[in-house]
Amino acid sequence: MQLSTKPNTMTYKREDKRAKAKRALRSLAIAVAVPFSLTMVTVILFGSGHNYRAVHKPFWFPPLWFIHLASLGSSFLMGFSAWLFWADGGFHTQSNALLFYIAQTFLSIIWDPLVLVVGAVWLGWFFSVVHFGSLFACYRSFRRVNPFAKDLTKPCLAWVAYFTVVNYKLTSLLF
């Protein structure tokens, strides 16, 4: 009796699952790390906020460290929700969602240098409003494909809505 030299199909399936899991983890790490890292670099380079600290603010204005922490948390959540959306084929079926995601990522990163360094508070408020709109568009796109990805965008929407109000009130304090 001769033993078969053919590899077992179960072995192939197991190896295939491992390879897919490694690719999924690698893509998840990239999807979360890129926006998080860009936000972290922006906070480190432009997050001093001398103008923001110098203004006498109402009690409900967040401290600068909380602004940075919430921005980092929001970029993490949006990276994770975008990955969930992508993993379910969402960017292939709804190509506009990718544009909205890129727009919201860019707008969340640009706010710190725009307002805290340059002092363009009115332009920062406009960017906050557009940021909320792009986040809401992501929310609507994500809900059609992955309900959990949709739910991850809700805290980001709440943060940007609150921060848009803070930014608007900041314009009246500075001018």
From TrEMBL:
Coarse class of the protein's main subcellular location: membrane
This protein's UniProt keywords: Membrane, Transmembrane, Transmembrane helix
Regions that span the bilayer: 24-45, 65-86
Topology within the bilayer: Multi-pass membrane protein
Transmembrane helix recorded as keyword: yes
Family to which this protein belongs: Belongs to the TspO/BZRP family.
Name of the protein: Translocator protein homolog
